[in-house]
Amino acid sequence: MHGLMMDRPLLIKRLLWRAEHVFGDKQVISRDGSGYHTYTYAELGSRVRRLAGALAALGVAPGDRVATLAWNTHRHLECYFAVPGMGAILHTANHRLSEDQLAYTMDHARDRVVLVEPDLVPLLESIADRLPLVHSYVVLGKVPADTTLSPVFDYEDLLAHAAAVELPELDEYAAAGLCYTSGTTGDPKGVLYSHRSTVLHTLALCVKGSAEVAEDDTYLVVTPMSHVNAWGTPYACALQGTTLVLPGTHPRPEDLLRIIHDQRPNVMVAAVTVGTMLRDAHNSTGRRYHLDSLQRLWLGGQAPPAALTEWWQQNNGTVVVNGWGMTETSPIATFSPDVSSQGKPLPLVEMRITDEAGTELPWDGKSVGELEVCTPWAAREYLDDPRSVDSFREGWLRTGDVSVFTPDGSMALKDRSKDLIKSGGEWISSVDLENALMAHPMVHEAVVIAIPDETWLERPLACVEAQGSVTEEELRNHLQARFAKYWVPEHIVFVRRIPKTSVGKFDKKQLRARYLECGLPGISP
Amino acid sequence: MHGLMMDRPLLIKRLLWRAEHVFGDKQVISRDGSGYHTYTYAELGSRVRRLAGALAALGVAPGDRVATLAWNTHRHLECYFAVPGMGAILHTANHRLSEDQLAYTMDHARDRVVLVEPDLVPLLESIADRLPLVHSYVVLGKVPADTTLSPVFDYEDLLAHAAAVELPELDEYAAAGLCYTSGTTGDPKGVLYSHRSTVLHTLALCVKGSAEVAEDDTYLVVTPMSHVNAWGTPYACALQGTTLVLPGTHPRPEDLLRIIHDQRPNVMVAAVTVGTMLRDAHNSTGRRYHLDSLQRLWLGGQAPPAALTEWWQQNNGTVVVNGWGMTETSPIATFSPDVSSQGKPLPLVEMRITDEAGTELPWDGKSVGELEVCTPWAAREYLDDPRSVDSFREGWLRTGDVSVFTPDGSMALKDRSKDLIKSGGEWISSVDLENALMAHPMVHEAVVIAIPDETWLERPLACVEAQGSVTEEELRNHLQARFAKYWVPEHIVFVRRIPKTSVGKFDKKQLRARYLECGLPGISP
């Protein structure tokens, strides 16, 4: 027998209802050149309903894919609510992908309308001939006079002339958003979020012990809104009436310093590399900007290195927090109030670790296995992609991450399974080696990859971006004090810059390929 | 098109999964006579699976109603997870109802099995002949030798011999719990919760700005588990790994003081009257027990009077918080970190106020209207009850409460619509008068009801339980300083004790009936 409770679907528009009704006066602040664009959640709601009307007038129907190619701005935020709110699907295309990858994703998604930032128009023009299904382009600002996009519309013009429409009731399982993995191997894979998964993920971000997004916070969201919904923070901020600060078009490190100085956010959400860049920019600008409002720095994409965490704590009193997740998990699945681990599974997130035979391993602080996840906000398959079979097993998502759980339910990431180094029958964690290297004062960034070895099958190779004078031997001594002897890499090479992926992670795939093709400074494959 | 996310139903067993796996070592502490019974969430989980096995062996099938007639104990907590977990429906029968009402609810619910506390066996025996569908009685402790209940089983015996069963996957809309309203008018009405509504309500209790149930808290749950799931706190504590302290069989005020002294909870959840009783008991026991661990006192059932709030703040440093809800809303729908109002709607709770014609009124801090609610954890109808038509309209629950919203989304309760006094065309709030009276140092408790009046249609009548020497005139002067002249009651009567309902609220229905029948001290109808 069913319960007799209201059959009230979990829809993204419910988040907006609370922003408008309960927190209507709270602000959304978007960097706009050297100034700021500011309005309230009440105004957001009214513009969302006009955007929904404008898109309907352009012919957008329920189920249609509408792409954004955009920065973190108030207009992008409007798309976050209007597109799924009207029953269409928001594909947040990632302009940091290669042109080929971007074209692949937009074609694969079958995008019909693209909302594009003025400065990204040239990028879109260069792939437009590969997007035969797109029937309308909308520029999120001034339309460049010489654009070849056609037909092309001015976003503000559309809104000015649009009739507001009420967002309809929908099935909560309806698709709401589409995001592609950043493609560390092969073509990007599409993850199709539903209203239900988005709402549940949003709630989980606001729970005590999780990110705890709260009414009194001011969030600076640097994590791109083009990447896994900026970890869901825009939705959580709206739900909780959190003041939301968006860094606008192409923010440089000094822009971010200025925003922090001006808007005094108490929380910043960003990739680990942004935490590093801001530290460096703060030092190189003579500490001109005040960063003391920042109580919490939520860094993601990879485990924050201890040296970076300590700098923020000691120099600015900022606590670095982190979690774990992936595009396939919306993305947040664990959260930690510090960096001692990746934290505990959020409510409704079930996890296990398994060995190579698929046997579940104990949470004993020692057993290392592949992390598997089951939650209403994890993907069950990729969109139209035969590779799904490799990642999903018996209802669980196989993450490809290798981790260990302590008995108190805290998860520590050891590696990506493909980055784990198997040397002479023993596992070596590239992440642990990288963190130890980056804790050395003369190391700016470091990445460790596996290279083939005749004797040991694989051996670690460390690539180091130094920030002062340091020798291979000094670094080896530094590591020898911390790890078993067989962990210490024979080869440590100094590189000018460590390659990064489109979302700012160390690009180990590129390093491995470069090594195998032509070697690295001082050593050949 | 549907999203491609895991189809993972929201089930009560997911809450237990987190308690067991992430917080397996955290404790559940139940008062047991003058001592305590203590075990971990891991042990809770293992006993839950055995209880499910035992109930299945007794013949309990999915959809069956299983009643508890029980105090707040670890065994009752086991029923909270095992009964819905196995697909049956937990009817938490309320032993504070009159015998007739209790028999009515258990017959109406079609209960098949009753789990009964040893000291409540006589009560159950007295109505057992009115429960023809019950096929098994289980005593949550020692079976009284002379009981007439039959067949009757010993709970611990059943568990000792039961096979543990894994809790099955279920439809999230399946009924999970059944609770009856406390029946301030007519027979109690049944509200049938689903797994989905219970899980969503639980999440909402843990969100920042809501009750914020957290891992580091120790909750003393005095609110009866027989009444709206103790406001959902046992489920929220399990989900968050909160240390849970349960006051056991028939706790007296001094028992509660001792529990607070011994277990040092930082949060207590209780009816407003319990807050009053504890204050009085603390004073009368010479402040022998240390209550300083209590940071937060969550009082409900009615708006906490200011005098009580101040006492807790000034004498113990305890912040009184409150919310608003009813059996029909699971129950929590708003929450406030203080007592300045009943707080803001929780995430996913939509509210509006309407006038008598059903027109929506603005949130302007002035307009007073009937509160209506829409949320996935509100009832859409009562179980098998023709009175449903009066309470539900166009998908909204009409609460019968009258309230006002400020523009920042905070709701202040003015009255029950049937308790509001309409005098000479003007509204008078009985709640406001009661709070003002109870702020007087010589007033212990006060209740205000409407009585018929030839000139004004209705006039307020104040019934006061004094705690010292005070006159009618002194109280009138006290009120005159605070309210418009027409608000001040002509009649103030002193009563020995104010009658309470089964859940500790002022019983205005009884007072009104008593007045209309035979008058009150000093005045006749």
Automatic annotation (TrEMBL), chains A, B:
Lineage top rank: taxon: Bacteria
Protein EC: 6.2.1.3
Entry keyword set: Ligase
Domain AMP-dependent synthetase/ligase intervals: 21-383
Annotated GO MF terms: long-chain fatty acid-CoA ligase activity
Pfam family membership, one: AMP-binding
Domain AMP-binding enzyme C-terminal: 433-505
Record-linked NCBIfam families: PRK06187.1
Protein name, UniProt field: Long-chain-fatty-acid--CoA ligase
